[in-house]
Specification:
about 350 residues; alpha/beta; 3 domains; two-stranded antiparallel ribbon; 12 helices; about 50% helix; elongated; binds zinc ion; coiled coil
Amino acid sequence: MTRTQLVDAIRHKNGVLTKTRVERNRAQKRAETAAEKVKLHERLVAALATQDVPRLQRLLQVAMDQGRSIEDILKRIEDAVTAVYHVKSFSATEIDLARVMWHLAGDKGAYILHKALGFPSVTTIREQSQSTRPTIHPSPSTPTLEYITRNLLSMFPSNPTRRVCRCGQAIMFDGIAIRKCMRRDDDHMVGACRECTAGMDLSMSCLENILSLARAVRRGDNGEDPLVHFGVEATVGAMGALRGIDYHAYPFSVSASCKAEKASEFKDYLELHLLAWKMVCAETYGDIWIVGCDGASVFRGACFQLLMASTFSDDLRAMLSPLRGLNLQCGPDDVVHCPDPKHLIKREYALSLI
Ligand SMILES: [Zn+2]
């Protein structure tokens, strides 16, 4: 081997050595990285196996959608366990479930679900429901025509987004027991009985309105008869379509009562609701055919006074009069009373016991 050949051989050897060292260093770094990843995966598995992570599936889904690394996911899991991190994204099922719980169990039920299982809070449910949920305001006092039409138009818009099939409608009233308390709604105080608050200003525009209502209610504390009562029952008015599909009852009117109302007063109440529907909804959704209510004597008395006051129009009377024994009495616009037969049977049974 000549001197030149020897120098070339040494250079080649040095090049191979350098290349080998570089490859060895790279392989070493890859091995270290792989070992770190294995450790991270082991930590992840240990965390999933041992920690109670709220809404784990959603947390992982959100992290993967964002392309987060295993290290980030681990950090989020640790933060979720210590309640530092909350997944703010909710699936449609979670929102629907929280909404159902909210409707069934109110704010407290939704709060429990939120705290225990990380479901949407009441605020989130409200925000999510804003676009689809019609707003129904309870009446602060005796409902006015303006109040009823506003609620009706919220529930039954004049230009509905879906196709509406016009048909006969049933208007129904029932009483629901409520908690005796006042609350604020739309800058008004609601929860006081409609019978005793006529003429009172129940808006929260000034302190004097609030104090005068409080004084009227608290008179009972001194042994005197209160001038105004807390409502013990909410009279709920609802509409139901008389057809084979989508015949659910849609509530649109809520008003608190202390149950001191007379039948003649409820007759006016009923008449106002019939008028409101006729004014703003009948043309689009159909006329009211029947009025339904439960067996309460005030409801029945009012229905008797209003819906037995006249007879059917000529066309209907001509068709129905051959039916011997049929009651041909009705109210305005041929509306008839349609009590639940269950209440008739109950009343007959009660009378038979006397
Ligand atoms: Zn009252």
